[in-house]
């Protein structure tokens, strides 16, 4: 038990150091500040809305980056900063992660962050993606994802990193790690998070085919824990949170660490290599050319201005074009 | 195949050495002796009743330590001794583990063993808990748990360590590793045994929340293999045992080892460190103070004289008090 | 991503070297040659029928080794050669593995290959069994098993090694790793392939009991992915293949490698030791005597001329005799 506890602290320290203002990943300390009062909106124009109910010890974090909560470096930085602040805030014991944009939880990584960027910038972007996962997957807080819209790729990863997933039972929504369909590959820690949730066989099929699941299908394979009518999702998240907060924090955190530490350590110990792998892969001429053509296509056809990978799949015409591009 | 076989023998030797009279964990060789005849009760006042049917090659081991089969050092020692004897007995090929106390399989570790004890005694206690798991989880015998009552914490661990779990379908009964609710944490090998049974996701949720499942829920997640009406559980255990004994022992044992050896080795290779972790954790002032208050409360309120951790949960008033104590 | 890609190539190279004509495992380069035209049967008297539809990029591989597609060294060699050729053929993107013999997919390893053979020959046989699994489990192709008959032991392994398993919904058919019932043990890589498909608990029970499942049972535990009426199995396999081929090959292959590489590496890194283990185990006097008696029995009772292990179970009389032999 002591060993597990020490390990947990170690992760905490690593995470803390990585995002601290003097560390390798410096978050701009702007716009977000927790007010003394309760239940006040903590940011205005920010893409990350944080409401902390100090009495309950619960923060609700809402993503609001139109059009599809694409994970740009700016959004990632804001989100990591907000999560780290909640992590450090003693009064906070749990967080609900959800979207302020109707119909979309998050469309995943912002594709514009991957095209025509310097290696340094690409590395910074990838480090921020890693950081988001490390913070969420290893959080000391109870984390509940209220998936109130579609959630492909990186959006699905965020949900997978929480302790509990509630999804709106709307058959139009989809969730899954669909990277493969776009000709790219989910990194090993995306895969590990999926595998720990749905098991080896479902993960194998899911990743090879880049499957996007309806809420009913996602529930069936265990990708989400519960389905609720869309209008009740926030209330249900609060109920679930109350159940989880009835458990003593320290013991719950140690149990969480016992089950997640190995998976977290895998990335923590290979973080730089993982960044280099990403930068090398995404900088390849073939990949950049595909991205360029895709970006140009987006500019020409304003109707398809979707800045995030996952969205591509939802329009058959774009999907076909992408497939051709990726193959060429 | 040969490699697997050697490994199995190695485990056998390690186990044998550890419990042998000259080893680190000396069982008092008293009270239990196998008579030559068949189907005779093998012990009288002992908390461990063993009946060996030599013709069938099957032993039934019944726990009878009132009020709730709490795993005290005395009971653990008797049980390990009985299991080791059956392990060494050529005529014995299978064992059914069950309870002689109505409504309770086992309430798990005896909390009085953890309060106000010397470090030496705490270490001895924990070594006995380890030994029970090593013997059961790595047994060469077919092991069937006939879970005829509630089975929290260490009681659940015993069931998890068998090859097959049959539970009485009585909605009043509960089973699960609920340590987290009491502010303590299931050791890594409890976690591994659960994970190997219900998978990563169910284990994560189960351990973080310290869930106790009804028989129906336990069956649904695979924590038990089969539900039967309470009055038929022993007959059904005998039927299942006959099916398992139809398989050649040697091949079955090698297959079992192939799937359990890695998990067993994890503890066997870190056994002393695990004991030290336990002793250090349980000796902490905060933990001892909580235990003291709880013990005093038990003395004052005779109605709550339940000596074992798991039982606490079954009385809402006690649960609330404990939670307060743990937090203070 | 780059790391995963390199790893994949490494496996490819290892596999390639192992089966190349100058390598340790030399396939006789006979009988099989791909014609230039499409949809022509690629071999005549061969036990391995290969039809490659170059336009679709899909090969159908049919086993036709009467009476039960027992995996003899000859069949293994032909099959490995065919698989390697398809692997190397750029026009081929997927393969359907099925049987040309009604009612039987494959009865698994040919028992006559294990009796009265020199150590060299036994080693050659086992290397071919390994090679088949390495090729199938690590194939760059989409692999769909159309299980159109019973599939015990090594037959089940072949199905487990594919990406997707469709089984004819005929209650007379059975599938499973039933080695334990015959007194032998599934090698660790059989176990790993099963574990990756049905999870730890189902694998433990399945292997300890040597369970053979009906199609419905196999579907329930996830051992097969889909059941179809027998007459529709080939059409359904083609449909499924088309779905899988809609995914970009490169990304699909990297995702497959990410989930299978560790399991493959386990054998690749212990291949020689695994061969030695097999040869030592099967050469033991007790095992050879059992095999001898069984072979003699087969000769005397022509009615039981089943050359492959799995088949034994389907006749109660033979099963009983075998059990006696194994025990003696």
Q: What this model shows, in words?
A:
The first copy, chain A, has 328 residues and is of the alpha/beta class. The first copy, chain A, folds into two domains: 48-283, 2-enoyl-CoA Hydratase, Chain A, domain 1 (Alpha-Beta Complex); 285-327. Chain A contains twelve helices and nine strands. Chain A has helices at 2-19, 73-88, 119-137, 153-160, 188-198, 200-209, 215-221, 233-245, 249-268, 271-283, 285-300, 316-327, and strands spanning 48-53, 58-63, 94-99, 103-104, 142-147, 149-152, 164-168, 175-176, 226-228. At the A-C interface, helix 5, helix 6, helix 10 and helix 12 of A face helix 1, helix 5 and helix 9 of C. Chains A, B, C: GO terms for molecular function: delta(3)-delta(2)-enoyl-CoA isomerase activity.
Describe the secondary structure blueprint for this structure.
The structure is a homotrimer of 328-residue chains.
Chain A: H1 2-19, E1 48-53, E2 58-63, H2 73-88, E3 94-99, E4 103-104, H3 119-137, E5 142-147, E6 149-152, H4 153-160, E7 164-168, E8 175-176, H5 188-198, H6 200-209, H7 215-221, E9 226-228, H8 233-245, H9 249-268, H10 271-283, H11 285-300, H12 316-327
Helix pairs in contact in A: 1-9, 2-3, 3-10, 5-6, 5-9, 11-12
Keywords (chains A, B, C): Acetylation, Fatty acid metabolism, Isomerase, Lipid metabolism, Mitochondrion, Transit peptide
Subunit structure (chains A, B, C): Homotrimer.
Enzyme class (chains A, B, C): isomerase
């Amino acid at each position: 038990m002591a060993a597990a506890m020490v390990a947990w602290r170690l992760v905490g320290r690593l995470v803390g150091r990585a995002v601290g203002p003097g560390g390798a990943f410096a978050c701009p300390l702007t716009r977000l500040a927790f007010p003394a009062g309760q239940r006040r909106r903590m940011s205005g124009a920010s893409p990350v809305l944080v409401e902390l109910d100090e009495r309950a010890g619960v923060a609700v974090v809402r993503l609001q980056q139109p059009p599809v909560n694409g994970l740009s470096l700016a959004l990632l930085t804001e989100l990591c900063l907000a999560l780290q602040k909640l992590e450090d805030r003693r009064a906070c014991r749990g967080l609900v992660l959800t979207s302020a944009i109707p119909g979309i939880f998050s469309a995943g990584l912002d594709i514009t962050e991957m095209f025509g960027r310097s290696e340094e910038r690409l590395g910074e972007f990838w480090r921020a993606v890693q950081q988001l996962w490390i913070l969420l997957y290893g959080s000391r807080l109870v984390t509940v994802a209220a998936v109130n819209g579609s959630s492909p790729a990186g959006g699905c990863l965020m949900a997978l990193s929480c302790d509990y997933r509630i999804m709106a039972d709307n058959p139009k929504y989809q969730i899954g790690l669909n990277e493969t369909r776009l000709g790219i590959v989910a990194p090993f820690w995306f895969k590990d998070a999926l595998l720990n949730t749905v098991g080896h066989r479902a993960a194998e099929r899911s990743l090879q085919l880049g499957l996007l699941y309806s809420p009913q299908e996602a529930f069936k394979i265990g990708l989400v824990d519960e389905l609720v009518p869309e209008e009740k999702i926030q209330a249900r998240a609060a109920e679930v949170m109350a159940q989880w907060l009835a458990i003593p924090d320290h013991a719950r955190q140690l149990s969480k660490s016992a089950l997640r530490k190995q998976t977290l350590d895998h990335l923590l110990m290979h973080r730089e290599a993982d960044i280099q792998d990403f930068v090398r892969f995404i900088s390849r001429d073939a990949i950049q050319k595909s991205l360029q053509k895709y970006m140009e296509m987006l500019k020409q056809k304003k109707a398809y201005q979707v800045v995030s990978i996952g969205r591509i799949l939802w329009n058959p015409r774009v999907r076909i074009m992408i497939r051709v591009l990726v193959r060429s």
